[in-house]
Amino acid sequence: MPDFLPDLPTDMILAALGRVPGNELKSGKFDSPDSSSALVANAFGWFLDRAKMMPMLPGGLGQAKTVKLEAEMRFPWDGGKHPWLDVEIETDRYLIGVEHARYEPFRPAKANSFSENFDRKVWGEKMEGYTRIRRTHANGARRFSCLDDVQLVKDAYGLRTEGHRRKLRPVLLYLYAEPAAFANGREVDPAKIAAHRADIQLFGESVEGDEVAFLAIAWTDMLALWGRGKMPVAEHAARVAERFGPL
Length: 247
Description:
The protein is of the alpha/beta class. 37% of the residues lie in helices and 15% in strands. The protein has a five-stranded mixed β-sheet with strand order 1-2-3-4-5. The protein is globular, with a radius of gyration of 18 Å.
């Protein structure tokens, strides 16, 4: 059994993690001190059965009705791989998918690409910003040095499809950390942190006005938001910061 923070619905969290391809529980990655999955599961897992206690996100997105870990957002076709968002938050009007990054932006990038399936004309006219990023990447140009733009575009396409199914407005929330050092104590290159920030800004500007809204929040800001909430939420935020910080 992983060493979860106190007062978490562990059965619900374990069930969610068990649904995901490449189960990190079985592989042992979840117990690593630099596990991104452990951070998300412990932080957002607290809200699985307390969704209405989650402080409202900025931007007028409303009060959370449901919170889920590891939510699949299927493309408008059968077969193949579909994106799994780290967290799904549903409000009265919005479907919010959280893609999280902890140490990943500051390590060598893993290969990621688009299959020819993404060339299908199924995304509508209000996804041109995301589609331009996809086409630029597919043509061999790399605009982002630390941001996984391929994953974010896939997430947005999946959210757009699922948002239409549920008749909710889709929002892609990029939740990122800026640690001074890796879990082993090795310093994170400050230049990479700055480059990552620049990538986030460029990505946001590139997709501004598209159907899937893009919102980026630092972990420190998210925990500060939770820390201003009711006492149980604030206490949980403090426990997350103590266990996984500095973020």
